[in-house]
């Protein structure tokens, strides 16, 4: 009798372990996270990354970053990390220069003029303000407010949260703008860092890291960032 009880208990433990392992694996498969340490695009060779100009590695409080000169420096990637995602969050740690152009496209994912999303800034009078843009089918929306300014020449964390029914932007973990939006997954396109895909509106400044998560994140889930 005792032997039967022991065998039953061991079988229960085995089933529980397998079940938990499958659940954890399923969670990992359902949540896709991608981190681009921008300096690795220079240090490592990738067949699907085209380098424009001569972006340079520079030091930052967080590690090696990359400086973009605002004229010709950029990376073009033959990949679309947000492909088929129903919602996602893109974060970036960057430092915009004090003497860049007014309109700057920092990250572009998707098509050149079709379904796409962009992280953009506007620079004016020593300050900048955020622009998170998304185009999905017939729907287009830019989250931008020229009153929400920040000094140029400093490090910042920005986040653009794209959900099924809304868009939201954050700077240093603080919500800036949120609007209703009907989003459908982007299925085709490529990626660029440092300029728009059609090589217009170049970014001038430093970028340390970009992270893309396949879900709607809250500020407490954002990348660690110290001012």
Describe the structure.
The protein is built from 2 helices and 16 strands. It is mostly beta strands and 227 residues long. The protein has 2 domains: 1-30; 32-221, Jelly Rolls (Sandwich). The strands form 2 sheets. Strands 1, 3, 4, 6, 12, 13, 14 and 16 form an 8-stranded antiparallel beta sheet that branches. The protein is globular and about 40 Å long. Mean pLDDT is 88; it is low at 1-31.
Question: What is the level 1 CATH name of the largest domain?
Answer: Mainly Beta
- Total strand count, please? 16
Amount of helix: 10-25%
What is the CA-based Rg, rounded? 21 Å
- Element string (H = helix, E = strand): HEHEEEEEEEEEEEEEEE
* Count of helix runs: 2
Overall shape:
globular
CATH architecture of the largest domain: Sandwich
Please give a quick description of this structure.
The chain is mainly beta and about 230 residues long.
Features:
ConA-like_dom_sf, signal, mainly beta, 15% helix, disordered N terminus, 2 helices, eight-stranded antiparallel β-sheet, 227 residues, Jelly Rolls, LamG-like jellyroll fold domain-containing protein
Write the layout of secondary structure elements.
Elements: H1 2-30, E1 33-37, H2 40-43, E2 49-52, E3 56-60, E4 63-69, E5 74-77, E6 88-96, E7 103-110, E8 116-124, E9 127-136, E10 139-144, E11 150-151, E12 156-162, E13 166-171, E14 174-180, E15 190-193, E16 204-213
Antiparallel strand pairs: 1-16, 2-5, 3-4, 4-16, 5-15, 6-12, 6-16, 7-8, 7-15, 8-9, 9-10, 9-11, 12-13, 13-14
Keywords: Signal
GO biological process, one term: carbohydrate metabolic process
GO molecular function: hydrolase activity, hydrolyzing O-glycosyl compounds
